[in-house]
């Protein structure tokens, strides 16, 4: 039995295997939040040609328009001969992309350059070897010596040197020749900055001659097929060497897919990319490199390596120039990785005099606190709710996602990304919706949806939107069209958000207390992450995501971790600063902290928290 996965994959399912299981076994991208139980509704695929009849799970999670368009849940599909499946892999334009394209470059010093040289031709009087001849000229032009080389360059020199009358372009670092090309190609030098998130991955293509961001593409981390958070992925990796390899292959394949997408959408060949910087939390760092992550999850929570690392693209199996420099920003601790260092580099105001808190919001939330006498960092397991995962109608911030909500006695109004019919709700919409539900009386401070028959002061139009659900009640944010599906928030959804925001708030209180200051003494609270860019200070204060402080102190800086990766790509001095930073920051482990546990219970309430 063969199934075609567009554009060009053919898979052979095993007996009694669901489509979901077959996709995971063949390392193809599919969301697997509920581990194939049919309860999350996230593993949507589109069937072309023959479309299997919808199951009860399909009918529950997909609206009539989606069902008619051939969408099904992969975990419910029984493979049949000749099926054609579309996975809709790369999202080339979403919030993560838009936020970065607005970035402006100030310093350009990437530590890598192209140098054009014209060599003399060999004669009987000048029998120097091709390599010696090139190095002599190059050293004269740059004032640096290049004594070391490898078989890659030596094997190419004879043909490259003679292809254009003994002229060539060398791509060099301070002491090494990375690549040689015939003729003058000095105007084409490119690099990529990669943000490896737990839920999604983004790659920015940058002209290293001009400092311009040419294109950014983003997609879901293929590792989500093996778990939604870092703990579940560490657990999976510990099952066997094959499991660990599957995770390593998944993230490398995700990055390679995005590199291919960049090549297709621009005129830049993958072999023209000579430098890459990578940020990610410590677990993503280890899984990418294929390092043992088992000790990250047990006390004393030790990483294999925290130092900054450098590899060649060939070593990591990444599909750009084989000799490209791959730089990974340093980790701080077990769950505070290079993404936090990147965020600090990308938002340098947090290092200014005073007390400054940086919150990098995502599936794994990192906190960095700088005071006059210390720098502390910790991680809280916020979970995937901020990314839309674990929420019945949650989704990433892309076309069709509700991003803003207003509730009044007249009803509910909302804004949708792309100004189309809503198909779900993203993180910013979720937070604003829950704040609005609390302010309007739809839920109380404990997060419980009120009984409409007992809520005497609640407007009739809002009472009508409250209805029984599978567990507890749900509130209708948007009614579907004749064939569409209602977008709702259930009691379970609200609980997921409370857990996430409670962990963040408790982490802030714990870190501030350990630093010997109070929340009121903070001079600024900077929210980092693409999701955070679209949050409103009033909403995050009202629901208690951040302890109650003056609203003007709260700032957003976009995806600072990715910005930091870009700055480190563009200026080698930024990488040097990152190296110094990680040595100075003390890592705080919140696991087992009674202080954190006590604050966590109080932080679950949906109200301004002191």
Automatic annotation (TrEMBL):
Q: Which domain of life is it from?
A: Bacteria
Pfam families assigned: Fer2, RACo_C_ter, RACo_linker, Raco_middle
Tell me which InterPro entries the record gives.
Answer: 2Fe-2S_ferredoxin-like_sf (IPR036010), 2Fe-2S_ferredoxin-type (IPR001041), ATPase_NBD (IPR043129), Beta-grasp_dom_sf (IPR012675), Corrinoid_activation_enz (IPR052911), Raco-like_middle (IPR041414), Raco-like_middle_sf (IPR042259), RACo_C (IPR027980)
The UniProt GO MF terms for this protein read: iron-sulfur cluster binding
Can you give the residue ranges of the 2Fe-2S ferredoxin-type domain? 1-91
Membrane-spanning regions, if any? none
Name under which the protein is recorded? DUF4445 domain-containing protein
Write down the species.
Desulfosporosinus fructosivorans
